[in-house]
Structures are given as structure tokens and as C-alpha cells.
Design goal:
Layout: H1 2-17, H2 37-50, H3 52-66, E1 70-71, H4 74-81, H5 87-90, H6 92-112, H7 119-140, E2 143-144, H8 151-154, E3 161-162, H9 164-181, H10 199-216, H11 222-235, E4 245-247, H12 267-274, E5 280-281, H13 283-291, H14 296-300, E6 301-302, E7 341-342, E8 353-356, H15 358-370, H16 378-391, H17 403-412, H18 420-431, H19 436-446, H20 475-478, H21 480-489
Antiparallel strand pairs: 1-5, 2-3, 4-8, 6-7
Helix pairs in contact: 1-2, 2-6, 2-7, 3-4, 3-12, 3-19, 6-7, 7-9, 7-10, 9-10, 10-11, 10-15, 15-16, 15-18, 16-18, 18-19
Length: 505
């Protein structure tokens, strides 16, 4: 019954989005259509940031709490900072991605694989499948991939859990295939809300994703990481913020009821809106930006409105303060008014979502250059990455930082000998703000930034940050043999203190 409800809901959303070429048309009167690759591509792209169910639970509460982007609210503090298990939070991404995104994208691949006129749609679907599965495998480890989404077409209802190393090898192969396959004669890319069918942008996205994946395996397989980073750069990665992979959202209430799915609004904002004035940035983030004179401070945060003495802000008192991880907002001196808020334009249903950025690409190239893997200056890549990270905040509606202020900041905080890896990883942590899932993965890879210790006596892990999310428990009944094999590879326990393959830090 649940599967039928989800299928009906997906068909309904396809009828809503049809095969529109422009996102604005979703707000008008789309023509009702049966499921088709264009509608499925639109639906998948909407889900990836419009699914408030897992954006709230996986991105904000758990990943954002684990990596200390956020603090203060009940959910982020009680569960994300104290590391308490809630099955609904831990399995949210798994359940919705397999039910919605993976099934849709595999359908596109199946429908377009034998059609030369749909070569570009097929190539885009390959890139999208990598983007979807990358988050899954990086959070859970070994997951169904090669057999995922084939229940209807091939009758595979108990897919095997592929080893993460094998999944990554498949990622690299598929991104190369997609890059080569994308061409002017390969047909139109319909229903594309990321790039409106721009082939050159999709090629750059394929290579920028390849660079992300290359650096993700830098500690466990450095030779392969170097090889893939070089190919990504040679093929052509993002060249400016104009290439960023951005989802532009509309002002529609989130709804995850299977009978009436609607992912047109920003799912992360749904979390912020649902806990209005509850979520705050952590003291780790605010202190880092403030103490380093980072222009991003005022672009993302509002000044506090109260003092630690419960009165008005005193002359000379810091205007920007975060909340220590593991602390509820009402526990700090002065209460929540004594902490900075999140800028309102970041908390709108229309707030864009940034999936892959030029800033990220340049910072990863800085690390690759520092390691001697790619040509170019690590310091130059670093400077471009930081500058792009400041300017990318403008997509949310933030006032632009002056070039003079940016230059002052870059001159004062260059890439310094002896701290290169820490500086680069910490800047990635800032650039990944609002995409905490990626920040959490990069933190596990690098160990930076150094997180503040969690000393709460009721922490379920004794203050140890989880290193993966655990599989849904019902997998033990639904997919017993494959589940047990995957858990055996983890050491016999489906625990969130186990490690994924690439995490050898």
C-alpha cells in the first residue's frame, strides 16, 4: 500500500511539473503528463534539496550538529550535538532517496540507454545518479547501488550492498562516460532545473564532481585520488561562480505526505521555519569568522539583540556570538537574544540550494596542488576558493562584500606554510555551510576543523562524534542476506561509530 501511495504521489508531481524547460513554469499551469524522463529529471532535482524530511533531519539536525555548523535548538542540541540516536533522523536520507530519487533516475537510464536521440539525457542521468548515491554511500558506507532502483524493471527487490570502493570506481567510470557522451548531437536535455540543458555546464559539473570524489578518497587510495584529480582538471572543472550547481526554489509549503508530495520549496529552510528563532550558528563558526575578520560573518548572521546580563547590548560588547555546541539557546547567559541569529533571507522557502560550487572546486585543487598532484599554485587556488566562497553567498540575497574588504581579508589570511591542510579543510567547512552533509564527510576525511569537545554527561557516545549513519533496522527483515553481509564488513555491528571505507583519519 505504501509503495502504491508513493507511486501515485510521484505520478501526481510529474503531472504538476510535466516537461517544463523553465522553472518559472512550475508556478503556472503545467500540462499533465505521464511519467517521462523530463518529468523524472525535474522531480529528482527538486527532491535533492526540496525534500524537507531529510534536509531537516539529515542535513540540519545530524550533519549540521555533528560538524558544529549549528547549535542551540532543541533538536540540533539534544540529538545532533549530544549524539543521541533517533532512527527517524538516521534513516531519513536512505528511505526517501531510494523511494524517490534513485528510482526516478534509474528509470531515466533505463528509458534512454538505447535511444541515440536521448544521449544527453542519458549522460545527465549518469551524473545525477552519482550525485544521489555519493551522499548515500558517504553517510552509510556500503549501500545498494548497482542493483538499486530495479525492482519494477528487473524484479530486484533485495539489492546487494555494493562495497564502497566498488561504488567509487563505478562513479569515476560513469562520470567519464557522461563527459564523453555529452555532445551537441545528443538531443535536448529536457526538464533540467540546474542548467536548463546547457551541455557545457553539465560537462563541468561531471568533472567537478569527479574532483570532489577524488579528494574524498585521498587518504585511503592516494594514487587513484591523484589520477582522478588530474583527469578532472584536464577535462575541465568549474571556472567561476557562474558554473555553480544551484537549485532555485519557489514559495511553496513543504509537504512530504505521499499523497501530495511538494518539493518546490527549500527543504533546509523548512527546518529553519519549523523552528523559527530556535536554530543558531555555533560558537565555533561565529568565532572563526569574527576573529579572522571574515566578510561572511555579517552576510550569514545578524547581530545579537541582548546582552549576557539580560539587558541591552553594552558599548564595546561583541555583537556577534554563537551558541556553544551541546548547549540549548536558553542556557547561555542572556538567553537566545544574546546570540546572533541567522539572516532571514537564508530561511525562506525561495532560498536557493548550492549543490556543487566553484569555491569547493578551487579549494580542493588547492589541496591537490599542495600534495603535488596537479599543476598550479596551491596558494592561488586557495585564494580563488575563499574569494568565491564569499561571493557565492550573494545567491541567497546577502549584500555583496566589497572587493576591498575581500582583498584585505585575503591579504591578512593567506595560505601559510605548515598549516595548509587545516586551512583548506576549514575553508571547505565554511564553504559547505547549508550543505552540512558534505561538511560532515570532509571533516571525517581530514579531521578539520578541530571541533569543540562535547562534555554533556547524557551524550550517548561519551562525546565521540559518530562517523557514519546506521542502516534502517527493517533492512534486517526486508533484505536479510545482503544486510547481514554488509554489517559483517563493518565488524558485525550496525553502529554509527564504525567507519566508511575512505575514512582512515
Amino acid at each position: 500500500m505504501k509503495f502504491k501511495q508513493i507511486l501515485i504521489a510521484i505520478l501526481f508531481l510529474f503531472a504538476m511539473v510535466g516537461c517544463t524547460e523553465n522553472f518559472d513554469e512550475l508556478e503556472k499551469d503545467p500540462v499533465a503528463l505521464s511519467p517521462n524522463p523530463a518529468g523524472q529529471l525535474t522531480f529528482t532535482q527538486l527532491c535533492m534539496s526540496g525534500d524537507g524530511y531529510y534536509q531537516h533531519r539529515t542535513n540540519l539536525i545530524y550533519s549540521g550538529g555533528f560538524v558544529q555548523h549549528y547549535a542551540g535548538s532543541w533538536a540540533v542540541t539534544e540529538y545532533g550535538s549530544k549524539f543521541k540516536k533517533v532512527d527517524e533522523y538516521a534513516t531519513a536520507l536512505w528511505r526517501n532517496v531510494y523511494a524517490n530519487e534513485m528510482k526516478s533516475i534509474v528509470d531515466i537510464l533505463e528509458k534512454t540507454s538505447a535511444d541515440p536521440a536521448a544521449g544527453n539525457m542519458n549522460a545527465v542521468a549518469k551524473i545525477m545518479k552519482v550525485m544521489i548515491a555519493q551522499r548515500l554511500t558517504d553517510l552509510y558506507g556500503d549501500v545498494p547501488y548497482s542493483e538499486a532502483g530495479l525492482g519494477f524493471s528487473k524484479g530486484i527487490v533485495t539489492p546487494k550492498y555494493d562495497k564502497q570502493e566498488d561504488i567509487y570506481n563505478a562513479f569515476f567510470a560513469q562520470l567519464q562516460e557522461a563527459f564523453v557522451q555529452l555532445n551537441a548531437g545528443g538531443g535536448a536535455i529536457k526538464g533540467d532545473l540546474f542548467y536548463n540543458g546547457d551541455i557545457s555546464k553539465w560537462k563541468k559539473l561531471a568533472n567537478s564532481m569527479r574532483l570532489r570524489l577524488a579528494m574524498r578518497i585521498s587518504e585511503v587510495s592516494p594514487a587513484e585520488a591523484e589520477k582522478q584529480a588530474k583527469i578532472a582538471l584536464q577535462n575541465g572543472v568549474f571556472e567561476s561562480n557562474e558554473d555553480n550547481c544551484i537549485m532555485h526554489h519557489l514559495d511553496f509549503p513543504f509537504n512530504d505526505n505521499p499523497a501530495s508530495l511538494d518539493f518546490r520549496g527549500n527543504g533546509l529552510s523548512y527546518g529553519f521555519i519549523g523552528d523559527e528563532h530556535g536554530d543558531h550558528f555555533s560558537s565555533l563558526l561565529i568565532d572563526y569568522l569574527r576573529d579572522n575578520g571574515d566578510p561572511r560573518l555579517t552576510m550569514i548572521a545578524t547581530p545579537k539583540t541582548g546582552s549576557v546580563n539580560w539587558g541591552p547590548v553594552a558599548p564595546g560588547e561583541e555583537l556577534y556570538e554563537g551558541i556553544p555546541p551541546g548547549t540549548f539557546r536558553w542556557e547561555i547567559p542572556g538567553g537566545s537574544n544574546a546570540a546572533s541569529g541567522i539572516q532571514p533571507y537564508i530561511k525562506l522557502r525561495t532560498t536557493p540550494f548550492l549543490h556543487v560550487s566553484y569555491s569547493e572546486t578551487q579549494l580542493l585543487l588547492a589541496e591537490a596542488a599542495f600534495r603535488g598532484w596537479v599543476s598550479g599554485s596551491a596558494a592561488d587556488y586557495y585564494q580563488k576558493g575563499v574569494e568565491a566562497g564569499i561571493k557565492q553567498l550573494e545567491i541567497y540575497g546577502a549584500p555583496a562584500a566589497s572587493q576591498a574588504n575581500i582583498n584585505t581579508y585575503l591579504s591578512a589570511k593567506p595560505l601559510a606554510a605548515g598549516t595548509e591542510k587545516e586551512q583548506i579543510a576549514t575553508q571547505l567547512w565554511v564553504t559547505y555551510l547549508f550543505n552540512s552533509i558534505e561538511a560532515y564527510s570532509n571533516w571525517r576525511r581530514t579531521g578539520f576543523p578541530h571541533l569543540l569537545p562535547i562534555t554533556n554527561p547524557d551524550s550517548e557516545t561519551g562525546g565521540v562524534t559518530p562517523t557514519r549513519l546506521y542502516y534502517p533496522n527493517d533492512e534486517m527483515q526486508k533484505n536479510t542476506a545482503n544486510y547481514q553481509e554488509a554489517v559483517a564488513r563493518l565488524g558485525g555491528t550496525n553502529d554509527w561509530l564504525g567507519k566508511v571505507w575512505w575514512d582512515v583519519n
